[in-house]
Structure formats: structure tokens, C-alpha cells
Amino acid sequence: MNKGFQKWLGYIDKWVVFPLVLQWKLRKKALRNKNVRFHICDHSNAPYLLHLDRKRASITCHDVLAIRGSLGYADAHVSASRFGQVLQKWILHHLSRADRLAAVSHFTLRQLKELSLPHIQNQFLTWQVIHNAFNDEFRPMDVSECLPVLHQAGLPTSAPFILHVGSSLPRKNRSLLLEMLHILGNQWLGNICFAGEGPDVELLAKIEQLDLRERVKFVVKPLHKTLVALYSTCDAFIFPSYSEGFGWPVIEAQACGAPVIASSVEPMPEVSGGAALHADPFDPKAFAEALLTLQHSSTRASLVQQGFANSRRFELAHMIGAYLDLCQLTPA
Question: How many independent structural domains does the chain possess?
Fold first, then answer.
């Protein structure tokens, strides 16, 4: 993450230079064509709505975690500097006034409505939920294809492993997997694989404290093929996040045939479609018990099949059609 001088240069580029370029480009061509629609792909760019024709503009809200964190909501598990607090209020001001808005989950939409001012609630009628779609192909990979990929990634294939995919942000709750493994003791003798970011100081200290150094593996920034191989061969995918706007890895794992154990905090149950085991993210024992439940072949097979069915809700065609409707661009 850029800091200091580079960070402020980024702000100048984003909030001063680009709006000037945007205005020049739009006035030159796009604003003259009444058939043109504008879509802002992320809520953090909501102030750009100020420079667009609101009747022809729409925006996607992926989460309100940073906004809620800046307002002091502890359950967002996101902190903000003083400048960050000002910035997030500015983003909320413009986001709340969008004529056409898509939230990626019912949970995110509900939270946004709660934060928006009473006098603009008439606009809620044009806000809707459009779930994210897969951003690449996720399917079960044959074991024979997986093994060389996992070997190349440095992951032992002689023992089962539970998988976590994501960043090192505190809200991702990666340390729960360590506590979970410690609680299991001799009841489950597999490893943990963290795919995504490498370990931070706190996680490494926890690994040493619980004497798990030989059982924890990291695959940093995996290629897509590696990620699919991990999902396809893990004993279970574990997603104990404290807060999310959507929770993409849940459906990626389901589409690859991995049984999922996820946080019971919304929107994880919404996204899993009930095709996952859910547990309190503050209770590693509950996650450990859920993993033992998956050792029953019938339970595991049922959950995997339910996951396949749920993942079909997030096919790209569904999302494209919904956005065309949102922008009123559905072909006749």
C-alpha cells in the first residue's frame, strides 16, 4: 500500500486530475449521445457520480465496511484515520444519492440503507441486489492434474489439508484455523494451507506459540490454476471472516467441489445458499466440530452436491442480464 507522498499523489490523481479528464472526455462525445450509459464499478468511486448524468449512471456497492468502520461500527472490523473518516463520509454522501445502484448482497444493501439519510429513501426503489458472478472458470480439477500443480506450489500431498483463501487483514480471521487445528489435536492430523498473502508477524507468532510450524503452509499469490487445484483437493475450505460484503471464495470453493465451513455472520449464509456448515467466527471449537462432521462420507457428499447447485446461481449470464436491466439496456 502506498504511504506518505505517493499516497497523496494518488489522491490528487484520483480526485482532481481524473475528474477533469472525465469531464473533458464526456463533453467531447459521450454526453451528446443519449444512448450512452455510465456505470461505476466500485462504491469507492461514488464521487464520480457528480460528473455524470444521474439518470444515465449506475454504480455497484460491494460493501460498506470502510464506511461503517469510519463511523465507529466495531462489527465492520475496519479502522480509519481522521482523513479516512472524512473521505468515507464523502463517499457515502454521493453513494446514497445514486439513482441506480446494485449491491452485491442483500446484507450489503440493507446496511447501506441503514446508513443513508431519511430524506433520500425514495431512491431505495431503484436500488437492487445483483450478486457477483465468477470472474474466471472454477470447476473440479482431476486429482491427477492437481498433484503436479500442488507439488510445484510446495504443498505436501501426503496429508489432507484445510484451505483458507484471502488476505492478511484482521477481519479475515486467519488465526482461527490455527486455534481450530490445536483444538482438534489427534482427531485430525492434516495441515493448513493459507493461499493469498503471506504470513504477518502476528500469525507467525501464533504458529510458534501453538507449535504448528510443520503443519502450516503458505501459497503466496497463487496462479488461477493453482487456486483451482487447492479448492479441488482440500479436505475443507474454511472461511471464518468477521465481516464481508459478499465472500467470493465461498462460491469458488463450492464450484470446485470443496465442502465449505464458513462464518455464521451475514452475508456468508446468504452467499452459501445453505450449502455450507456455518459457525461463530469467535468459536474455533465450533469450526473444529464442523470439520469432524465432514469426516462422515454421506454428510460430505451431500454438502458438495448442494454446493454445486448453489454455485450455479452465480453464473456470468445472470449478472450481465441483471445489469442490463439496471441500466435499462435490455435488448428488445
Answer: 2
CA distance linking residue 171 with residue 25, whole number of Å: 39
Q: Domain span at residue 264?
A: 143-309
Query: What is the arithmetic mean of pLDDT over 129-147?
Result: 97
Question: Are both 299 and 171 inside the same structural domain?
Answer: yes
In a domain, 26, yes or no: no
Write down the H helix ranges in 123-265: 143-152, 175-184, 201-209, 224-233, 248-255
45 in the same domain as 160:
no
Q: What is the pLDDT of residue 30?
A: 67
In a domain, 52, yes or no: yes
Average pLDDT over residues 98-115: 95
Q: Give the predicted TM-score (pTM) of the model.
A: 0.92
Q: Is residue 110's pLDDT more than 80?
A: yes
Each as own residue / partner, the long-range contacts of residues 289-296 (CB below 8 Å, 24 or more positions apart, any chain) are: 290/261, 291/162, 291/180, 291/184, 291/188, 291/235, 291/236, 291/238, 291/261, 292/184, 292/187, 292/188, 294/235, 294/236, 294/259, 294/261, 295/188
Same domain, 287 and 257: yes
Residues 271, 251 contacting (CB under 8 angstroms)? yes
Q: What is the pLDDT of residues 231-287, one digit of tens each?
A: 999 999 999 999 999 999 999 999 999 999 999 999 999 999 999 999 999 999 999
